Description:
The complex is a heterodimer.
Chain A: H1 2-39, H2 59-62, E1 68-73, E2 76-81, H3 82-115, H4 121-129, H5 136-146, H6 152-160, H7 174-197, H8 201-209, H9 214-242, H10 246-251, H11 259-269, H12 273-298, H13 302-306
Antiparallel strand pairs in A: 1-2
Helix pairs in contact in A: 1-12, 3-7, 3-9, 5-7, 7-9, 8-9, 9-12, 11-12
Chain B: H1 2-15, E1 33-42, E2 45-55, E3 60-64, H2 71-79, E4 86-91, E5 94-95, E6 106-109, H3 121-131, H4 136-149, H5 165-178, E7 183-187, H6 195-212, E8 215-220, H7 223-229, E9 232-237, E10 240-245, H8 247-252, H9 257-262, E11 267-277, E12 280-285, E13 288-294, E14 303-307, E15 312-315, E16 323-333, E17 337-344, E18 349-355, E19 368-373, E20 378-382
Helix pairs in contact in B: 3-4, 3-5, 4-5
Amino acid sequence: xxxxxxxxxxxxxxxxxxxxxxxxxxxxxxxxxxxxxxxxxxxxxxxxxxxxxxxxxxxxxxxxxxxxxxxxxxxxxxxxxxxxxxxxxxxxxxxxxxxxxxxxxxxxxxxxxxxxxxxxxxxxxxxxxxxxxxxxxxxxxxxxxxxxxxxxxxxxxxxxxxxxxxxxxxxxxxxxxxxxxxxxxxxxxxxxxxxxxxxxxxxxxxxxxxxxxxxxxxxxxxxxxxxxxxxxxxxxxxxxxxxxxxxxxxxxxxxxxxxxxxxxxxxxxxxxxxxxxxxxxxxxxxxxxxxxxxxxxxxxxxxxxxx
Amino acid sequence: xxxxxxxxxxxxxxxxxxxxxxxxxxxxxxxxxxxxxxxxxxxxxxxxxxxxxxxxxxxxxxxxxxxxxxxxxxxxxxxxxxxxxxxxxxxxxxxxxxxxxxxxxxxxxxxxxxxxxxxxxxxxxxxxxxxxxxxxxxxxxxxxxxxxxxxxxxxxxxxxxxxxxxxxxxxxxxxxxxxxxxxxxxxxxxxxxxxxxxxxxxxxxxxxxxxxxxxxxxxxxxxxxxxxxxxxxxxxxxxxxxxxxxxxxxxxxxxxxxxxxxxxxxxxxxxxxxxxxxxxxxxxxxxxxxxxxxxxxxxxxxxxxxxxxxxxxxxxxxxxxxxxxxxxxxxxxxxxxxxxxxxxxxxxxxxxxxxxxxxxxxxxxxxxxxxxxxxxxxxxxxxxxxxxx
Lengths: 307, 389
């Protein structure tokens, strides 16, 4: 604080702190608190608000139950509430998206950080960034065209002779996964690149010199060093995927319900903002728990990610 | 030398029945390294230029040269990180062409050591064994033995960041020794240490080399290190190996001006070779004619006369031969010696060094004296102090 005052002067310091405070309180804490508060109140007609019916309960959270559908998992069929199923599948497929982005991003980040010559790095970064200049809606829509039944992907695959007849890509969760991976892969690449770049190349050579094959060098030297980067990349991709509305809406099939779509339905379709708030909080809590659990499992500290 | 000294590693290994699979077909015996006409180009730049040298098994060999002379490139070629553009590298008689770094019987100690900071010390040391599939208990036992060998007891479970510079150095040595290499390659590993520690580690390295009998190839730009530790020194300049000899010969009988001036100080006089006979000649300079040793390839006006300051005799009376009158212009006290700078009649600067052993009388500035050069210890050498050829 003393440091800040000396460096920027009183006025600028207080303006900066004031703006940060405003952002934190007015734009983050207050809306979330309002949502949390309303999630415990029933959905009532205007006249009943503040009346005897308006009391706090967990009723909205209970609305996730009901409307059982038969679900088959590991060969066992059992009834499961449809919203719970969507909820669970959203978490699972977000994790799948995270894993796929990691698998794609790791070699790319390693190539950028350790193999490519520093001279061509700016060009490669530019090429990676160019797609971001186009809005997410357009990019997702482009995938919808690419993946269409009579679309370019099938046409190319058939003309090359890899497939004999068209594949229906937009079915199940695959288009959503493709879209999410495409949209968020850079959020994995850059943290990974950052963490790998700080690794002393001599350590890679030292491992090789001691007889280590490439995969062991990655497993024992590079991967452990990149762990904070992997963690922050994974947290970002997972949270963004689970919270994405656009990609599942545009690229979803009839069988790919995403929990954000459920929330949207309830908030905008049923106009039940209280239940929507409750659902949104459930998603937030579940994602936070899942991320903390994964961080525990992989032994990553929060301070590592913040770096 | 290999049998006796090598036993230390093996005895240690046998005591706990640690069997280590040799890497590739190479054995853990120390081996001769042959560099056969080796060249290395980076684009148009020739970093290493037709280097020929055979390093004997169990030898402590140093490549000495200024930065950019190609010595690190040689090291990286031997360890397998760079392929030579031309020529062959043989270790123990076996051509290393196409063998990657992880297939060669070499172990490299990096300038910055490159220890693995996320592994405890013992895992660092045992990494090479882990790679070879040695099970955990044996790895741990072997790491403890090697830690004892480098005088680092009770550090097995510490992390790298908890060790001091000298201790890290020892861990790096132990890690390299763990794979029982035929050749240890050291890339200026002492350059990051302070003076006292550096001198201590010199002796330590030499002792470890003697105990293990492994061939050491040492890269340095520090002539003191090279002379003090090595069996033989190869002096390099601009990619070329200038001279390969034992430290005494490098210092006392340099083959050319580059070697003479890179290793130690010199009074250098330009002139002309006259009356050359076998091994000696008369050399005429602006300050007089001097009798001196004649180096190979030195002739005419391209040669120069090199006289070490400590070989200059400073006296009040004129010497019998090779003597020149001077006026003392500066005296600087360096501790173990006193440097006396003097000017001749035509203004040429000459330096003499007097040992600070109490026997020499230190002249005062302005005194007129004579400097006499020992004919046996003054050399007429081809002048290559700047060029590599």
